[in-house]
Amino acid sequence: MGKLLVVDDLEIIFEKQSENHDCRWCVYVRARKGQKEKNVLMIKLNNKPYTRFLMNNGTIVTNSKDVLKDIMSKSFN
To answer: Cα 20 to the chain's mean position, in Å?
Structure first.
């Protein structure tokens, strides 16, 4: 496992690149702690990224549409 960060807010951005870029996708992870905000990570890839939304109920971890709805309710266009 990498570095453990504790933050107030986290934003994950999936950005499809134009044909003239050296990769097809960029994924950005931005974090805010207090008044400070910074890009924590940028990932460049050619394969389309995928996401999973999981619920840990204490004994088992399963895919969850409720978690997806909860996360997407805070998305901004």
So the answer is: 25
Rounded alpha-carbon distances, angstroms, from residue 13 to 18, 44, 56, 57:
16, 12, 24, 27
For residue range 18-66, list pLDDT tens digits in order: 999 999 999 999 999 999 999 999 999 999 999 999 999 999 999 999 9
**What distances in angstroms separate CA 42 from CA 30, 57, 75, one per listed residue?**
9, 31, 19
Residue 36 one-letter amino acid: K
Report the Cα–Cα distance between both ends of the chain, in Å, rounded.
32
The encoded tokens of residue 53 equal: 């939304």
